[in-house]
Amino acid sequence: MDLFRKRLISGVTGGRKATSLLRAGLFAAAIALPACAFLALPSITAAAKDAAVKGADAPIVGAPKRLRLLTTQQYINTIQYFFGPDIKIDVKFSPLARTDGLLVSGSSIAGVSDAQIEIYQKVANIVSTQVLAPERRETLIPCKPKNDKAADNACAAKFLGDVSGYLYRAPLSKDRLANLVSDAGKAADQLKDFYAGLQLTLEGVLMSPNVLFVAETEEADPKRPGQMRLDGYSLASRLSLFLWNAAPDATLRQAAAKGQLDNEKTRAKIVDMMLASPRLEAGVRSFFDDMFGFDDFETLAKDAMAYPYFLGEAAGDAREQTLRTVVDQLLTKNRDYRDLYTTRETFISPALAIIYGVPTTPGWRAIEFPPESHRTGILTQVSFLALHSHPGRSSATLRGKALRELLLCQKVPPPPANVDFSIVNNPNSDYKTARDRLTAHRANPVCAGCHKITDPMGLALENFDGAGQYRTEEKGTPIDPTGSLDGKDFANVDGLTVALRDNTSLPTCLVRRAFSYSTGGSLPLTAEPALVELNKSFAAEGYRLRGLLKAIALNPAFSAVAEPAPKKAAPEKSASVQPTKVVAANP
Amino acid sequence: MNGLNRRRVLRGMLNGGAVTVGLPLLNCFLNGNGTALADGSAMPQRFGSWIWGLGMNASVFVPKKTGKDFEFPEEIEALAPLRDKINIMTNATAFRDNSPLLCHFSGWVVSRTGIAPSNRTLGSETYDVKIANQISRTRRFKSLTVNAAADARVSYSYEDPNTPSPAEYSPLLFYSRLFGPDFPDPNAKDFKPSPRVMARKSVLSGVMEEMDSLNKKVGTEDRARLDQYFSGLRHLEQQFDQQLTKPEPIAACHPAASPKDSDMKLGNESPLVVARHKMMTDLLAMAVACDQTRVVNMAYCATFSNTTKPGYDKPHHTTTHEEPVDDKLGYQPVVSWFTRRSMEGFAYFVQAFANIKEGDGTVLDNMFIVADTDHGLARMHALDGMPFITAGRAGGKVKNGYHIDMKGTTLARAGLTALRVMGVDTPRFGDRSNTTSDPISEILV
């Protein structure tokens, strides 16, 4: 057991004690084998607890200022909000390393390779060519050149001034703007085409490190002497990337220029405006897509022989179904976040209707599953069930692991590298069901430790096959869907979803992920007091997502700048960095 | 270098106006060693990396005899026709010292960086990047990284620990990147520099000027990220220059027609992976034939490969853990089936470069390829008994036709050998138990 575990796990405990620890929200350490314990990371340090107790006098500690690389979706949203949704952008930037549970956190450490620069140039060309296409000039260019075969500095300055203010997310210096206008003019004269000059200049602007990187800058906080906070434009960008997953619009930049984001009351007004905007949906979708690990859908494939009813569109539709459910429940209907895991209301497409065994109708439609369907909450949707299965088989272990890691922010250690699977490898064995197979596997005490923390909840989902279709038997043998989660036993999946809904880690995990996401990177341990505060207000307001987003955006820790963290000690780093790709070596 | 660094030189050149295609041979461009760029008289040297997932079954992979005249066991039978073009190395070790065994990760990371990772992050760039900085900086593409897994995330080339080289995963998109409208066809009949490209270059230099103010806003670590960005812009500028200069004709450069949309099927089934690997390999080989790059990286599949065998319920990775060992055969038959497909893939890859004539020989004669994997016996996540394969003569520096028993020495010797053969002056490679200053001398001329 390494040093880090020694520090975090107060002791190896039995189930009941572990449950009480979990309830306390401080530690999670569960099982009878020291080789395998799941961890709620990171935990509150004594210093951070002190700070939380001291309250107002204690320094406000947020995240460090960051240098964030725009993600693919942030880039696309930014372009389409300004130039129109009909600008076609089919691009994938370099994959980000999932860091502390979020892909977006990888954007604060990612570098840019030569090949990525080339991708930026290609997409800049594609975007600028569309923006300056004859059919869009009327609407997108605010003026007409005197002669469209030559330079027109006045008109170019108007267009480039507007565009650069938006894309740079702050006003451009006069000199730089003059350079851009002159570049556009030279190119226009060379090519005898005013619009070609603008197109090439816009292409260049879209290559700018100031556009593709979000470099946060800080200033002294007059209210808290000795402490730093984000300056107005950096704060506007942080808010906008958080809530809209795009660059700030003109209103937000104006508010930054007038200092309105530094004042609690005016910031609240701006945040209300942002929460009321239709762009909020894109922001919320992006956050949940990231937290749920839905990037894995891009390569999800099912064995067509095992699951002939899992059609080509099913994977994409399953992702969309869950995101629609999230938006409908949490934004449109403003429901309790925890009810997302028990609601029977959702939306289905024709490809999904086949899997769910309900009549197909063209397009998407709202549906409420009957109580006896066992389709309660997003855990029982095709997205979760199919994503955490093998191509040709369901996996109680993968599902249990995903539930713990994605939804409860706990970390399930990878299987020990030298496991011998000879028990399940016995060619003469005939395991009819997953439960039989896993029971045999758990006969090995080395395996039993970890599987105890994933399988009991995963097995309750065994009534759904690897593609998410409901079943009552496997290989002719009835499925036993009993299980337990952190000390709560249940007879089937309906009990699991209720136990998950009532698990205290469910809302605190959302708070942790949302706050981390809002700052675009991993949180320092010193940010714990802010999480404690946010957990309280989230609970007090009945676990409403809108309320949480607002509380984060208005929390002083959201705009405060922490000192850059000292280099973490090696053992901590090794435990807190999660694999880019979960490697599943489980049955 | 008395205050003369790469950035400053590049800036100076920009301010000086015209930048020519051939970069001046200043030491600061060449990764510390000013001897790398070919002057046009010597045959250019190339490097290729190729990776397959999930190791092998020693009883049917490792030849019984070492040295020359060994027999190819059944798992590597596909390589037998290439006997005089390759070397088989077996029984190497990825030492992890006190680092954890990170399944399907530690092995290839030691192979490619010489450093056992302590978490899922690399300790340095991969050595193909060092080689690319040495031999391929002046090319249109410093390197090309592709996979046959149809997954943008499958890349085993890293510019630094946080920056994977983005992998081409679609033959269609890859074709258009290589041979689309921006391709400077060396054999084109007429050549006219495009005024559009000239204008583009001029706008780009303004963008590069922005780096200074941005640099002031960030801390040291982030400055390294910005530096990397700047160096990427600089390389882009060089690409524009190449588009503005008439290229020398190259006889072997004949890009085929673009793959068709209908040829593109996503999915992990083995026949799809095989077909995709062929298309991607053909494109890579032609890119090298046209001298668009001198470093290529191919991943046949992810190291935790999810390739499936039609009609079999588990993907490759799961199969390594769950398929019973066949008592009669003494190994896992379906796992071996997957490894055999991988070896056929590597044979195709090597042959693709051997098919391109160059001077009196072929491109493969002026190339060095290393194929590696993540484990020895994947079922047990073994980091010992690890194999790798080399191909090509590297301009006469390497002998072929050998089976070498590495006798448990570090896998990092593959990297050291590749670096030395490619002219990267490296006294040693790797750290802790993987430190080596001992290349595989048996195959060196």
Written account of the structure:
The complex is a heterodimer of chains A (587) and B (445). Chain A is of the alpha+beta class and 587 residues long. Among the domains of chain A are: 69-214, no CATH class; 287-501, no CATH class. In chain A, the strands form 6 sheets. Chain A has a 4-stranded mixed β-sheet. Chain A has a two-stranded antiparallel sheet with strand order 1-9. In chain A, a hairpin with a 2-residue loop joins β10 (473-474) and β11 (477-478). The model of chain A is unreliable at 1-56 and 567-587 (pLDDT under 50). Chain B is α/β, with parallel strands linked by helices and 445 residues long. Chain B folds into 2 domains: 44-182 and 264-443, 3-Layer(aba) Sandwich (Alkaline Phosphatase, subunit A), CATH 3.40.720; 194-244. Helix content of chain B is 33%, strand content 10%. Chain B has a 7-stranded mixed β-sheet with strand order 3-6-1-9-10-2-11, with helices on both faces. Chain B starts with 5 loop residues before the first helix and ends in a 24-residue tail after the last helix. Chains A and B meet through α5, α8, α9 and α27 of A and β5, α6, α7, α8 and α10 of B.
Topology:
The complex is a heterodimer of chains A (587) and B (445).
Chain A: H1 3-8, H2 15-24, E1 39-40, H3 46-54, E2 63-64, E3 67-69, H4 72-83, H5 114-131, H6 134-140, H7 153-167, H8 174-191, H9 194-205, H10 209-212, E4 213-215, E5 218-220, E6 228-230, H11 232-243, H12 250-257, H13 264-276, H14 279-291, H15 314-332, E7 345-348, H16 350-356, E8 365-368, H17 382-387, H18 396-407, E9 410-411, H19 422-425, H20 434-442, H21 445-458, E10 473-474, E11 477-478, E12 483-485, E13 488-490, H22 493-501, H23 505-519, H24 528-540, H25 545-554, H26 556-559, E14 560-562, H27 570-576
Parallel strand pairs in A: 2-14
Antiparallel strand pairs in A: 1-9, 3-4, 5-6, 6-14, 7-8, 10-11, 12-13
Chain B: H1 6-15, E1 46-51, H2 58-61, E2 86-92, H3 106-113, H4 127-135, E3 144-147, E4 158-160, E5 163-164, H5 171-179, H6 195-209, H7 211-217, H8 220-244, H9 270-289, E6 295-299, H10 316-322, H11 333-354, E7 357-358, E8 361-362, E9 367-372, E10 386-391, E11 403-405, H12 412-421
Helix pairs in contact in B: 3-12, 5-9, 6-8, 9-11
